[in-house]
Amino acid sequence: MGNQPGGHLGGQPQGVPYPQLPQYPQPQMSPSAAKYLSALSQGATWRSALIPPGLALLAGIIVSIIISALLTSMSDFTTLAEETGFNTDGISYALPFVLLAMSLFGSAVFRFNVQAGDMGQASGSLFASGAPLLITIIVIGVLWWFTKRSELKSPSPNRGVTWIRIGITTLSMAFVLLLLELIFAARFSITESGGVVDLEFSAVTVRSFFLPLLTVLITSICARIAGHFKGSEAIGAPFLRWLVPPILVTWTHLIVATLALSIVAVFIIPLSFDMPWQTIPALFINVGLILTMLVHLGGVSASAQGDMMGFDSRGFSESLTIFSREAPGQLWIGLLAVVAAVLVATLVATVTRRPYWTVAGEDKAQWSTAWKIPLAFCAIWGLVSVLAVPLRIHLEGSAAAASMFDGFGTARAGVGPLAWSFLLFALWGVVIEVLSRTLGPRLVLTVPALAKFFAGRAVHPHWGQALGMSEPRHPLIHPDAVAGPGAGAGTTTAGAGAVAAAGTGAAASADPSVPQSGPSAHAEPGAYPPPGELSAYPPPGELSAYPPAGATYPMPAPPNGAYAGPGSPPPPGTAPAQPFNKKKATLVGVISGSAVLAIVAALIVVTQVNGNTFSPEAAVEKYFSELSDGDAEGALKMADVDVPTEQRQLLTNDVLGAAKALPKDVTVDDADVNGNSATVTATYDVGGSKGTTNFSLHKAGKKALFFDDWRLQAPELFYLSVETPGLSKVKINGIDIETSEYGIALPAFPGMYTIGLSEVTELVSADEIEARAFFAEEGDMEGYEPALLAAQPTDAFRTEVNKQIKTLIDSCAKKTVAQPDGCPFGSYSAESYDATNIKWSISSYPTASVGDPSGEGYFDPEESTGPNAGPAWPISTETTGEAFVTGKYDSFFDESDTFDDTVTFSVDGTAEIVDGKVVINIEGDPYDF
Predict the structure, then answer these.
(1) Among 305-319, 396-410, 542-556, 582-596, the least confident range
(2) Are 71 and 78 in contact (CB under 8 A)?
(3) Which bin fits 880, alpha (ψ -120 to 50), beta or left (φ > 0)?
(4) Which of 131, 733, 819, 820 has minimal Cβ neighbours within 10 Å of its Cβ?
(5) Residue 482, SS3?
(6) Element holding 213 (H helix, E strand)
(7) Does pTM surpass 0.70?
């Protein structure tokens, strides 16, 4: 390490040869093969190649276990396992490694094999793909960081060794991940109804091997380039240096925008999506990435097609952009994140390009490279659109499965970006190009620290002094710093030759161990060229290094040798860009920053309030809150019902507020929103019985500009039906309600209603009855039996009835006819003998009962009203009475004989209440005597 020029890797410029490796005895083989094979026998090679992927896997497994523990702690997971009989322990063990594979853009698979005896055997698979980006960032980030650090500490001696390390890292990590997927795959069986179902949950798929392999390969290549002091030449591709500035601009823009919107997604997921908080770590960056596409005027789509387990799906496809009617208005506030990302990317694009005032004369090539950033935006966002954004499920089954499960074939569903979205990002790249070439220099000079922070190693050498950078950062030093004199505009041939010569001499003096007899005399195959053959690379201390702090920055020589000395002023007629006024810039920055923070806070607050207070679910919850408080007027104000005024007797606060039970334990499901309409299903409890109702809502506009105004359409009310035989008025929840001829049938809000007599007297009593009311659904009224309020006569009533019956019988006994009118008895014999001088006497009086013998009241509403229009009850005989009749009749011999007869009789009729008094109506002799 100490033999390297500059004394440390950070000062090693590109083009300076590596220190010579010690010469060991080699087997008889080609020099290049011997060199590469000797690298495999060195511990540094294996440490550098194996430690980074090992740490990356360890970090990924830890994070995956944490996220898996959160997901499996959800109640929905436990419920699903109980309903299906799945082995939760096996799934819990497999889930971390499934998430790890998916984070590297692999896929998960749920395979099943059904053996159903006589029905045969069927199999199928459910594939799922979609990277949990938090795990992706941690795994790739750890792999990148430690690979780069290992290359810094122990750089590869030649390109071949670099590729050997890359290959070992890639293959080892890919195969270890595959081995973990095989070991921790969840396999279990379910036996039911004489059949056996074998299930497997894992990430063992072709995609889960090759895509992680490619991901690790690309990450390892980039990290080796970033850590090696030769940069991209370490892999034999020096031209890749020209890709660094546009790619850096693109990644900076992507990271700033996605990071800002991912923070917002932390609040959006549990509020707007109504998802458990345990899903936040797994999804918040994915949601942030989708929001980034939307606020950049792109779009996402959700689609499904095929049939699944016999449920036919005709397929659907819906798209969402920021201009869609379904898009929340708060999404427009996300443009602030776009502005911030564009400004930061503009700073990076500016400082990775040579400033115009350092070019002698007119910079004819100023706009010739304007295509690089748009192309980088298009390429990187295209990859993101293909790998990071989509969440997809694919189901497929065998022909036997299709037959066994009645239509089970193939089905697809997923969420992904619209196909043209990545092309829009090319337009944002054009915007950044224009800004960086116009306002960019002034912005950079106003906030140099910010530009230096985001640009890092890719800063152009001419910005080194302005940004306070004293020396180049070795791995990704700007290509202009190693392109050599003559590459920039205005540099003379003489100057180029001088610098080249200086570069050669400096390199030679810097490393005397390098042979100087010939540029290529001792060059090894695959080794980096010695300095004599790379005159384009300047020696240490020259153009490849920034001047010390406080020194002027060397500038290329303009035409004719003018201003050739280091630190010379710019050519005449070109003035350097001036920073914005610091005080004004500070004031504007503070105000803008405060405004941005306020708007972001407002976005969060608006999203939270809109999701909690102004959503369709919130409208239904508020409606039930009014009902639970007994506020009928508040409920009618939210959703008035189409009911005539005369039928609103139960739709009052007095009636609803006095209900014995009101809706409680309300559960509101997620709304099914379709444009400006929504359907919400709610389940509630009334006095221990459950009811479920679907509510329809429509969006009437906005409240206070930002909040949705969801209006509830009036639900169909239940008709509370009670039969009240003979009663003209009853009390419902303590309020007098007049009845119709047969009872009451009035619309009512959900609740437990108590129905009783309007007035309690000593003659009539009735037990209060309770009736539940729910919202009416189609078909709910079919087979509904109305409740019955059966008023019963009291003992005093019955005593009075028996007293009046006795009085009636006594009055009938005083009559002198065989068949007294209106009396319950008569004598057939007396009438047949045409008896005279008839006298009646009562041997025993009958006993009568009033009301239904079963004690359940009088059931026939039509006969519950007496002749005088009062409430009436039937009179029936419990024990019959006996009457004795005597008289005389003429015999055939003109003689007068004595006649007598004993009659058994009963009493039947009605007992009626008229003006508060008992009136009986006894039927005549049933034999019509």
Answers:
(1) 542-556
(2) no
(3) beta
(4) 819
(5) coil
(6) helix 207-227
(7) no
